[in-house]
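Need tokens for this chain, all 192 residues.
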Amino acid sequence: MIGDNLNHEHTEWLRSLGIRFIEVSNGNGSGTFRDALNLSIKENLESDFVYLLEDDFLHKEDSNGLLIEALNEYDSYITLYDHPDKYLNKDKGGNPFIEDGGEVTRVIKTDTMHWKITNSTVMSFAARVSRLKHDMELLEKYSSNRITDSFGLFTELSRTKGIAVLSSIPGYSTHCEKAWLSPFTNWEEIND
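Here are the structure tokens for all 192 residues:
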């Protein structure tokens, strides 16, 4: 786990959990993402799966198994977040590719879950280390400013390399900002 500029109380709480904890002082999400990315590549085998996860996400039970299930079948970026921007028309401030309340996509399945190919996700995703290494130039390009550009990253990966993002449907994780909760789940109930 990487923590960026955490206060003393939070740091001590994490240490009390016995979690390996690395402190950094980037002061921005992009720098911390690059630290996590580089550490993931440095400390894992190419065949290993890694989950790069922002600090403001909540997951349903069994989400770990679903990530592994998808990663075993597809050399893609996998997210458990069914982002509500995929259902908000571009003319209402939503995703630029959305019309009539949805995106044009394909739905596929693994043994226990449906997945849609989606045009983008946020910077919380799983992938093989080999996939991260292969796409390192773009991962660095879109995390070079203070704020990551996940939309730019994933749309360029799709356009130039044919690399998909797979999103579980329904979502098995959510961003904790109320306006961007994955649909069809009572996340407050899960948070309890």
